[in-house]
Design a protein that fits this description.
Oligomer: single chain
Shape: globular
Strand order of the largest sheet: 2-3-1-5-4-9-10-11
CATH architecture of the largest domain: 2-Layer Sandwich
Number of helices: 9
Number of domains: 2
CATH topology of the largest domain: Alpha-Beta Plaits
């Protein structure tokens, strides 16, 4: 019997689940759920909509986490029964079912294990992701759109609520930039490891000679703020412009000036929102994005100061962190963690769990 046989895998997963359970503490989660349910049952909960949303969102996240733990625990018990049956009856079908069940549970357990490493101040929050095309012409703008679709699909597969806040379409193919809001437990903690410069190598569909082209896109992820008092923005520090929302090729998708662009004059940060029909709602959403960007800027400045004091002045932003190679061979490789996948189509369809899990572990190791 090898360590890769189902019985050994089952034993190993039970040990890992016990370790995860020790960290997450299901009894504490159950107590917190009971307390939050009492808050939700109180009359007047929605008098303060922002507070109510925080409470109901926290309740939903904790219930989901507890359900995930219980699902893995019961799944391991079912797999154990199937394994025992397959041995007693020499039933190959039961053995195949047990192997498939264990493989699925292993992925779920790996996800929980990585979440136990997410203990940063903002890791549990939702996220705002910005994607910008870089060098590479039409290939770069097309690549930026491929990344946008990839992260939307990943978010949806993880049960996050995904909203495209703003998209700036290129004159040729793809997009110049976009802003995406991803709501869900630990969205920022997971997706923050995706920040950096992404590189695509392929035979260009925009080149008549079909030459190989290298293009770049930048991804930035910041935590979504939960309340206005975290980052105060003076009205005198911003300029608000309104314009009509538009889609690809300049096609109008809104006949009123409902889209909002906010410029923060001291820093030059510009944010836009056009996904809501109401100008007021777009302004509120754009302000949240601006405050999130300012919060992250403040965090980066604090980290920079710490690194300077420690004698390390290397900047992480702008460093190439992942390559997507479609020609002459096919591979997606993270240059920090060495994690790689040989099916780029799967990756572009949102299968990022392996990259994100390895990125979180790598970051934990870097932070000691």
């Amino acid at each position: 019997m090898t360590s890769f046989e189902p019985a050994d895998l089952l034993k190993d997963m039970r040990v890992r689940l016990e370790q995860v359970t020790g960290v997450l503490n299901p009894s504490r989660i159950s107590t917190e759920i009971t307390e939050l349910e009492e808050h939700v049952a109180k009359p007047g909960l929605w008098d303060d909509q922002e507070a109510a949303q925080r409470i109901t969102s926290s309740l939903s996240q904790k219930k989901l986490l507890l359900n995930r733990l219980e699902t893995i625990e019961s799944g391991l018990e079912d797999a154990a029964v199937l394994l025992e049956l397959s041995e007693q009856e020499r039933d190959n079908q039961a053995l195949a079912e047990a192997k498939a069940e264990l493989a699925d549970l292993a992925n779920q357990l790996s996800g929980l294990e990585t979440e136990t490493l997410l203990s940063g101040e903002y890791d549990s929050r939702s996220a705002i992701m910005s994607i910008r095309s870089g060098a590479g012409g039409d290939d770069a703008t097309d690549f930026a759109e491929m990344l946008m679709r990839m992260y939307v699909r990943y978010g949806e597969s993880e049960g996050m609520r995904v909203d495209l806040l703003d998209v700036s379409y290129a004159e040729g193919a793809g997009i110049k930039s976009c802003s995406i809001k991803l709501d869900g437990p630990y969205s920022f903690g997971k997706l923050s490891v995706e920040s950096g410069t992404h590189r695509l190598v392929r035979m260009s569909p925009f080149n008549a000679a079909g030459k190989r082209q290298t293009s770049f896109a930048a991804v930035e992820v910041v935590p979504l703020i939960e309340s206005d008092n975290e980052v105060e923005v003076s009205d005198s520090d911003i300029r608000v412009d309104v314009f009509r929302s538009s889609g690809p090729g300049g096609q109008s998708v809104n006949t009123t000036d409902s889209a909002v662009r906010i410029t923060h004059l001291p820093t030059g940060i510009v944010v836009s929102c056009q996904n809501e029909k109401s100008q007021l709602q777009n302004k509120i959403e754009a302000m949240r994005v601006l405050q999130s960007r300012l919060l992250d800027l403040r965090r980066q400045e604090e980290e920079k100061t710490k690194k300077q004091l420690a004698g390390d002045v290397k900047a992480s932003w702008g460093e190439q962190m992942r390559s997507y190679v479609l020609a002459p061979y096919q591979m997606v490789k993270d240059l920090r963690t060495e994690h790689e996948e040989n099916n780029p189509d799967d990756v572009f369809n949102g299968k990022l769990a392996g990259f994100i899990a390895s990125g979180i572990r790598w970051r934990a190791e870097q932070n000691g």
